[in-house]
Amino acid sequence: MSSKPTLVFVPGAWHSADTWKKVSTILETEHQFKCIPVALPSTKSDPTATLLDDIEAVRSVVLAETTQGRDVVVVVHSYGGIPGQSAIRGFALPRGKHDTPFSPSPPAQNKTSGHVIGLIVMASGFVVPAKSFLDGLGGQPPPSWRLEPESGFAVIVADPRELFYHDLAEEEGKEWVSKLTKHSLKTLTEGGEHTYAGWMDVPVWYLATKDDKALPVEAQRMFVQMARDGGAHITLREINSSHSPMLSRPEETVQFILDATNAFLG
């Protein structure tokens, strides 16, 4: 088994896997990690894509790595926390193998398989089982986006550059806005029965974004405290960035990932 885990990256709503390119390139070329960014079906302008489709997209990558004997760290951002955390089900170490107690997952591997050894969360929430993404927000979307049942998509109504990339240079911010995709409404309003609180099975490192205009840092801190109250083992760090630290603060984000991964291995 490789001494370094595979890093599986899950993007947020409206974002392609390219969101992770800056940090994955650094991690691959300078630190020799294997990085796999996941392209979520919900972000491919397909209104029929479901939350289960997104979960399975992540699970298929995790399964491919663990069955080859590689451990995995799942890295999630924003909406990606829902499918990413849910996909951990069955891949964590059995009870008794952790330094701290976690809820066990159903065993899914034999003794030669790898496992998910940690979860890295950025500017996101924590799965509440049996609830959809929108249920977790109290049943209503925030003012920055709206539901369009006619088209089958969730649509951003705020200025996306200001919402996601306000600390990027103007031209780069505009470039990322041009790369935003349509996001399937079904993944946000349905599928609660498929969710799973993977954050209870593995240690978690959380990166809170202090200048976030999409998910205020106060809300992020509240989510972390609620998860801790629920029994999660979470290390919290904060960064002076917008909602997209992997784009505006790639070097600092890479260091956070390295610190987290070393802690999971230690």
TrEMBL record:
Q: Name one Pfam family in it.
A: Abhydrolase_6
The record, for Gene3D superfamilies, names:
alpha/beta hydrolase
Q: So which domain of life are we looking at?
A: Eukaryota
Give all residue intervals belonging to the AB hydrolase-1 domain. 7-255
Its recorded name reads AB hydrolase-1 domain-containing protein
